[in-house]
């Protein structure tokens, strides 16, 4: 599929994009990669590619468990963190079910859920950037 040189170049590019990313961008990258894995898993199920299905679902589960879920900060908003943690657990269960049954339906549900969460996250990130870009007002100047 890829030559060793092009695979190394792609890996270096991905590493550079992650190394220079803000916390908001890192979470966005995790959402993008999760969704990419879920879409690839759905395609593998449609094509009857068992190895591809297992690989892509495994990657999606890792992005959720080791990235999105571990990135939650209950100190900032305990209720939101708990709700998202429960939703991520549900997504992992649905991905596992889709993998066991080679059923696209639960995998499609996860795609829809993650897309909605990612959309909300992008809104939060955009608002945070706007706040940071606002000039500070000095009192008494």
TrEMBL record:
The keyword Oxidoreductase does not apply. GO terms for cellular component: cytosol. SUPFAM superfamilies: Flagellar export chaperone FliS. Signal peptide: none annotated. One of its GO terms (biological process) is bacterial-type flagellum-dependent cell motility. Keywords: Bacterial flagellum biogenesis, Cell projection, Chaperone, Cilium, Cytoplasm, Flagellum. It is found in: Cytoplasm, Cytosol. The keyword Cytoplasm applies. It comes from the Bacteria. Its main location: cytoplasm. Belongs to the FliS family. This is Flagellar secretion chaperone FliS. It comes from Xylophilus rhododendri. The lineage of its organism: Bacteria, Pseudomonadati, Pseudomonadota, Betaproteobacteria, Burkholderiales.
